[in-house]
Amino acid sequence: MNHFWVVGTDTDVGKTFITTLMMRYLQRTGYKVVPYKPVQTGEVKIGDKTYYYDTTTYLNYSLQPLSPESINSYSFPVPASPHYAAELEGEWISGATILNKINQLMKEYDAVICEGAGGLYVPLQPHTTLTLLDIIQRSKLPVVLVTHPKLGTINHTLLSLGALNSRGIEVLGIVINRFGHSPIEENNIQTLQRFIPDKPFVVVEENRTIDSFDEEMIFERLIKRDLLRTSES
């Protein structure tokens, strides 16, 4: 399977950064790759210019042409949980719309990377219990879990893995983002590896740029072997 989710243990752990890196990583193999952010919130304003960070990052760094219509279904200006940001705009996030879009993209692209919003249990609708985790489960796609190395990561990461495992969602591996080499960060990583010995870990150091990864193959362990074998044949 060449399609997967990039999800986080919380908001602001660097899901867009990792999604963009993995997009470029797979694009360099020659495959047609698209990132897909079903829901994004928080419009950025700089002077007279407004944009959304997530999809703008995709467009700016993709090695292949991307269509804005292919990379997002819902965008809301208020930086809030999707259910509330949509409610403020008088809109409704449809789970069926998201799943149909994913299925459409999987027919058109060799690899689709779906990026989550916030954590796994972020609600998508104001009057139901539909969460991002429900959409991930219904998509039947595996996930790469992004976390951070700082205080709290052990609890957040293990709880997120427990939630994914309880739904039967395959976890391809874990990306620990923004590693600053402090003693507590090093111990947190060692502790997580002790608790989760059967999953591959990728550690991304802080203050790295997207372009600086172009000659590195650090995500190889997280990508399905059949995709890599095909690209090498």
UniProtKB/TrEMBL annotation:
<comment type="similarity">
    <text>Belongs to the dethiobiotin synthetase family.</text>
</comment>
<feature type="binding site">
    <location>
        <position position="41"/>
    </location>
    <ligand>
        <name>substrate</name>
    </ligand>
</feature>
<keyword id="KW-0460">Magnesium</keyword>
<feature type="binding site">
    <location>
        <position position="16"/>
    </location>
    <ligand>
        <name>Mg(2+)</name>
    </ligand>
</feature>
<comment type="pathway">
    <text>Cofactor biosynthesis; biotin biosynthesis; biotin from 7,8-diaminononanoate: step 1/2.</text>
</comment>
<feature type="binding site">
    <location>
        <begin position="115"/>
        <end position="118"/>
    </location>
    <ligand>
        <name>ATP</name>
    </ligand>
</feature>
<dbReference type="GO" id="GO:0005524">
    <property type="term" value="F:ATP binding"/>
</dbReference>
<feature type="binding site">
    <location>
        <begin position="12"/>
        <end position="17"/>
    </location>
    <ligand>
        <name>ATP</name>
    </ligand>
</feature>
<feature type="binding site">
    <location>
        <position position="115"/>
    </location>
    <ligand>
        <name>Mg(2+)</name>
    </ligand>
</feature>
<feature type="binding site">
    <location>
        <begin position="177"/>
        <end position="178"/>
    </location>
    <ligand>
        <name>ATP</name>
    </ligand>
</feature>
<dbReference type="InterPro" id="IPR004472">
    <property type="entry name" value="DTB_synth_BioD"/>
</dbReference>
<keyword id="KW-0963">Cytoplasm</keyword>
<dbReference type="GO" id="GO:0009102">
    <property type="term" value="P:biotin biosynthetic process"/>
</dbReference>
<keyword id="KW-0067">ATP-binding</keyword>
<feature type="binding site">
    <location>
        <position position="54"/>
    </location>
    <ligand>
        <name>ATP</name>
    </ligand>
</feature>
<feature type="binding site">
    <location>
        <position position="54"/>
    </location>
    <ligand>
        <name>Mg(2+)</name>
    </ligand>
</feature>
<feature type="binding site">
    <location>
        <begin position="200"/>
        <end position="202"/>
    </location>
    <ligand>
        <name>ATP</name>
    </ligand>
</feature>
<keyword id="KW-0479">Metal-binding</keyword>
<protein>
    <recommendedName>
        <fullName>ATP-dependent dethiobiotin synthetase BioD</fullName>
        <ecNumber>6.3.3.3</ecNumber>
    </recommendedName>
</protein>
<feature type="active site">
    <location>
        <position position="37"/>
    </location>
</feature>
<dbReference type="GO" id="GO:0004141">
    <property type="term" value="F:dethiobiotin synthase activity"/>
</dbReference>
<comment type="subunit">
    <text>Homodimer.</text>
</comment>
<keyword id="KW-0093">Biotin biosynthesis</keyword>
<dbReference type="InterPro" id="IPR027417">
    <property type="entry name" value="P-loop_NTPase"/>
</dbReference>
<comment type="function">
    <text>Catalyzes a mechanistically unusual reaction, the ATP-dependent insertion of CO2 between the N7 and N8 nitrogen atoms of 7,8-diaminopelargonic acid (DAPA, also called 7,8-diammoniononanoate) to form a ureido ring.</text>
</comment>
<dbReference type="GO" id="GO:0005829">
    <property type="term" value="C:cytosol"/>
</dbReference>
<keyword id="KW-0547">Nucleotide-binding</keyword>
<keyword id="KW-0436">Ligase</keyword>
<dbReference type="Pfam" id="PF13500">
    <property type="entry name" value="AAA_26"/>
</dbReference>
<dbReference type="GO" id="GO:0000287">
    <property type="term" value="F:magnesium ion binding"/>
</dbReference>
